[in-house]
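Go through this pair.

…
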Amino acid sequence: MKFLLDTHVLIWSLQDNHRLSSSARAIIGDTNNIIYVSSATIWEIAIKTSLKKLNLSVDEILQTLQHSEYTQLPITFSHAAKVAELPYHHNDPFDRILIAQALTEELTLITCDDKITQYELSLLLIH
């Protein structure tokens, strides 16, 4: 299967954080699955790091991702245009582009954000 990681899920997976559920760990660790990380996620981490809302090294995250099994998902014109079709249930622009990407690419979004359940997409909600 093909999955897209929400920003928190990526951070938790890279930090081996206890908040990442065992089911999410199993999915991410299963080499039969393709795990995507969006450019939007790196953008969000970079912004929140520069604003001191996150204490992470963007360079370290990029190095880790380059040596991982994660697949980069750039933001395309189609992804950006899909945002216009989304109901306005969620006002976070990063989450909205992830939703658009998941819909466009037919990916299951792994997230801990309850607001995203309002959208009709393949979703794995973790807590």
The helical segments are 7-15, 22-29, 39-50, 58-66, 77-82, 93-105. Strands lie at 2-5, 34-38, 71-73, 108-111, 123-125. The chain has one domain: 2-125. The mean pLDDT is 96.
